[in-house]
């Protein structure tokens, strides 16, 4: 019986440790990436037509490639905190806007076409 009690206690400790570790990873993931909703609009309404988004991080002056691409008029992406440029193309000319992502916040970026 004493062996079983010790084994049970060890198992409980492992379960608690795994649960705490999972919560820490979940919290770290939430802090590292924030939900950004991208919406291309005409007359303040989503266009519901094909469009192409390219997102660039402005703090990295050497980066020429987008950090995110969305091949439709709207959608959601995950980005870390920082300053970004959103470029949306439907027809020429392309439109763009700068936006800031804050930690632990959701952001909606709208670009009028």
Describe this structure in words.
The protein has 113 residues and is α+β, with helices and mostly antiparallel strands. 27% of the residues lie in helices and 42% in strands. It is built from one helix and eight strands. It has one helix at residues 2-32, and strands at residues 34-42, 45-46, 52-57, 68-70, 74-79, 82-89, 95-101, 107-112. Strands 1, 2, 5 and 8 form a four-stranded mixed β-sheet that branches. The chain has a four-stranded antiparallel β-sheet with strand order 4-3-6-7, with no helix packed on it. The longest helix is centred in the first third of the chain and has 31 residues, at 2-32. The N and C termini lie far apart (73 Å). The model is unreliable at 16-31 (pLDDT under 50).
Specify the number of helices. Answer: 1
Q: What is the overall shape?
A: globular
Q: What's the overall average pLDDT, rounded?
A: 78
SSE series: HEEEEEEEE
Largest sheet: 4 strands, mixed
Summarize the amount of helix as a percent range.
25-40%
Model regions low in confidence, pLDDT < 50 over at least 5 residues: 16-31
Query: What structural class results from the helix and strand content?
Result: alpha+beta
- Rg value: 22 Å
> How much of the polypeptide forms β-strand, as a percent range?
35-45%
Strand tally, please?
8
Our measurement of the CA-to-CA distance between the termini, rounded to an integer number of angstroms, reads 73 Å
